[in-house]
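User: Hello! My lab partner asked me to get a predicted holo structure for this protein. The small molecule is magnesium ion, SMILES included with the sequence. Please write out the structure tokens.
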Amino acid sequence: MPAVPSVDTATWIGAFERAADRVGAVLDAATDPVRRLEETGERGSGGDRTLVIDAAAEDEVFVELDALHAAGERFTALSEERGTVDYGSADLLVVVDPIDGSMNAKRGLPHRAVSIALAAGPDVATRGTMEDVVCGLVADFGPGERWTAVRGGGAFLDGAPLTGPAEERVADDGRLELVAIESAHPRHVQESGEALLAHVHRLRAIGAIALSLCQVAAGRVDGMASLWRCRAVDAAAAQLVVRESGGLVAFGDLGLAAPLDLAPHAPVVAARSATGLARVAELPHP
Ligand SMILES: [Mg+2]
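Assistant: Hello! Below are the structure tokens for the protein in complex with magnesium ion.
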């Protein structure tokens, strides 16, 4: 293994917490249902139409990244709207989704989150994968839950250690009792129909990939699957939360080798056991 720069994860998670406070304030202020629908007229680096609240949330995250840089940290940032921003080192990469669940935020549905992960390693800014993520935060502004993880140091929900169950719950008919799906375009749901019938007793569609992953970490659902290819910004922090809770995650055939960039490479699936993971891996048809 190449040398990994030593990282004070507490410092970084502290900064991510402050960024989440700032994003939460932006969302709390967006009470006007018409203004929530406003678009900037641009498309983010990830390709989606940018909402005014997406851009405002991202600005708040970058206030904290600017402060880290001013305090002497050197890193690169990768964010959904701005793309790659050079803060002086390619050996640390901050992966940001300013709002995961933008559609929920736009429509006033409660589950919307900010997701921020830190990856470390030689030239991780261009060669990094999910395996390089060393810590992360997902803040769900609906229930006000904060999910954090440190590689090798555990997963936490609102600061309390999080250890999910070792196995999935199975319904009387043998199917996984409850599975969260994302990228739930009706076409994808239709194409996954036979596999969903074969493996899933009941579905939930929260509308935020990071948050569906976190539900797996807590054992609130038995697995999750994005039915289409996801991007690293959506999953980088939450995949570590799942794995540090004792769960398993895979990005299609890439496993954990999904690149930390803005291209959608593979669907993400997660479960509590290898058996469960094999079942949810059959759900996406990208
Ligand atoms: Mg987003």
